[in-house]
Each structure stands twice: as C-alpha cells, then as structure tokens.
C-alpha cells in the first residue's frame, strides 16, 4: 500500500471523510459538481508522512475515547528501534516512522483489517 493509499484509508475509516476516487479519466462535470461532503484524494492530508497531520488522527482517536501510547521499540538486541503506536486494546502497530505507526494503529483500532 502506498503512503497516499494509506492516507485515503485513514481519511475514510478514521477521520470520517467521503472520498471520490478519480483515476485517469475523471467523470465529466454535470453541472451538479461534486457530491456533498466529499473530497478527492489529492485534497487529503499526508497523515502517513506529516507528523502534524498524523497528530490530527491522534486527536480524533482521543475524542472517540481511545487511550493512546507511543514509544520506540527494539524487540531484539542489535536491531534498530522502531516507532510504536497503540490505541485501545486492538490498535497497535510499529512502522519505520511514528506517523505511519499512528495511521496503522488507528485503522486497526477502528476495526480495519491490516496485513502485518
């Protein structure tokens, strides 16, 4: 999954956005414009790469009552530590960056099945 695909999934499943996925041939305007309360992928914040945008995810999760924890883990001696994020009981993830760990953990916490 690319960073932008992850951002779109977070926008939909965690932040509550309605996303219009326009690919190479967007539909022709009908005079009605975009459906209400929707956005295109290009307008989504870079949750998985921008720490300020990722912190919006943290605030949204807190507002929904999820406890959170962040740390750096080194499970095996001699291995580089990795950022770890956790929301509630079921939402934990580690990744190369804290921003990505926040996104993955938030998705798991809201019930989105993620490949580990």
Question: Which key features would you list for this structure?
Answer:
116 residues, alpha+beta, Bacillus phage protein, two-stranded parallel sheet, 3 helices, 17% strand
Weakly predicted, low-confidence segments? 23-27, 31-36
User: Which topology does CATH recognise?
Assistant: Bacillus phage protein
Overall number of domains: 1
Number of strands: 5
The end-to-end span amounts to 12 Å
% residues in beta strands: 15-25%
How would you sum up the global shape?
A: globular
Assembly context of the chains: single chain
Strand order of the largest sheet: 3-4-5
Q: Give the overall average pLDDT.
A: 83
Q: Major sheet, described briefly?
A: 3 strands, antiparallel
Structural class: alpha+beta
Question: Strands, helices and their partners?
Answer:
Blueprint: H1 3-13, E1 19-20, E2 39-40, H2 51-63, E3 68-73, E4 82-87, E5 91-94, H3 98-109
Parallel strand pairs: 1-2
Antiparallel strand pairs: 3-4, 4-5
Helix pairs in contact: 1-3, 2-3
Describe the overall structure.
The chain is an alpha+beta fold and 116 residues long. The protein is 31% helix and 17% strand. It contains three helices and five strands; from the N terminus they run H-E-E-H-E-E-E-H. The chain has helices at residues 3-13, 51-63, 98-109, and strands at 19-20, 39-40, 68-73, 82-87, 91-94. Strand 4 and strand 5 form a beta hairpin. It is globular and about 45 Å long.
The gist of it:
The protein contains 3 helices and 5 strands, in the order αββαβββα.
């Amino acid at each position: 999954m690319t960073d932008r695909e992850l951002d779109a999934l977070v926008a939909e499943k965690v932040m509550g956005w309605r996303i219009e996925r326009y690919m190479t041939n967007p539909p022709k305007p009908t005079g009605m414009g975009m459906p209400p309360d929707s956005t295109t992928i290009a307008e989504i914040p870079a949750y998985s790469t921008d720490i300020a945008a990722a912190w919006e995810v943290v605030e949204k999760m807190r507002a929904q009552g999820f406890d959170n924890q962040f740390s750096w883990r080194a499970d095996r001696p001699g291995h580089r530590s990795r950022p770890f994020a956790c929301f509630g009981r079921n939402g934990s993830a580690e990744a190369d960056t804290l921003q990505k760990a926040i996104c993955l953990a938030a998705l798991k916490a809201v019930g989105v099945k993620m490949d580990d």
